[in-house]
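Lab notebook, page 48
Experiment: co-folding of the full assembly
Goal: obtain a model of how the components sit together before planning crosslinking
Operator: M.T.
Materials (sequences as entered):
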Amino acid sequence: MNLYIKKQTFWGQRLLIKTVALVFLLIALNIFSQQLKNSFHAVSSPLTKVFSHSGQNSSYFLASFINVKNLQQENNAIKEENQNLLYQLALLQEYFSQNTSLNAVLMATQGDNVQLVMADIVGINTAEDIVILDKGSADGIAENMPVISKDKVVYGKVIKVYENFSEILLPSAKQSVVDVKVQSFDQQATPVHGAVKGEGGFSVYLDLITSDSTINENDVLVTSALEGIFPQNLLVGKIASVDKNDLKPFQSARVEPFFNIYKEDSLFIITNYK
Amino acid sequence: MIIIIKYIALFAVFFVAMLAQASFLPYFNILGTVPNIVFTLFFVMAFFESKKEPYEGFVTAVTAGFFLDIFVPSFFGVSIISLLAVYYLQKLITRVIKEPREKYSVYHFIPFFALGFVAYKAIMYGFSILFEFPMNVGVHAAGELLFSIPFAVAGFYVYKIFFRSAERQENQLKLL
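Observation: model returned without errors.
Model output:
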């Protein structure tokens, strides 16, 4: 009996020690959370780059092992070229639809005057669709700044900034919403606006397209700048299949996103858009 | 002193595991899912925790949770609390079953691991709603679990063969 009581007391003491230690630890961690996360990324970023490069090389090696390396490279090059062409088409469409002076303003805002900060990817959180970049508040990065690739593909926005690092919410994250429009070559057509929403696992879908609008497979989606975070005409994705239901006020569509975090080593943060 | 060295080693192991999870393994994803190495390592270690060291499982959960929290865009502690809950749940179930864990086969271990993973994801999902951070559940989480199981099984055998046999030998020497 005495032994049982003694054992119970020990168990209670241990639980108390663990609880008190945990509470103090959590308070301390949250007080210094910014510094801790920043220090972790600062310490780990050289190692992360090594891991990342070896991961990339190993995956290429694995791909070559099954004789698809050349195909993959060729495919990547074509995709890159295609995205560049699509971006140029988006710009050309704007030139046609607006007057010359407006075009000049547009060029000024979307061309040389856009300030970009290049950042390397140092971490990928696949469970939350978040990417860690090695630039932070010390480099002029702030929350809600848009992130793009060299091909003008939208990679999301900054959601958290540390001194030397920042967290990027990909368009596929569940909380992400990007206002888009369907790229159209018909000058007289009414622009079709919608929203690309994330559904996790690097997948996105198009929503809030009015039922009377016409959207088709392979239509290209570009940013509409309505939400005020992304500049116009950045590439978002391509419609894979349309889901039209007469009972619903809006139609939706599956979207094949243009972003591919495994393809990019570096991204660009637009620091002066607003 | 040995315990301090052991915990420093534990910290280093989880540090490397987290780096691998965040920067190496994403290149080997299957349909966007990557194995959760940190959780897997934590679960195997907690499953085979030493009975002589009462704080081992607790420290393992806190260390693994700390590294997972670094990549969660929310407060520090969500992963720590989730892993501690999984640890105590696993302890409670094994206490009810009363079978020494060394005797468990891999067929016992896999359902345990799956249950632990589901519990971890469920608690994290609760936190994601409470603190409004993105979190992939459903098919993505199921893929992550399936992808993690081979690593967990490998860890199970490694731990069972090397570490616990070493402990058994130590106990036999003490008896002699």
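Interpretation: Chain A has four helices and twelve strands.
Next step: discuss with group before ordering constructs.
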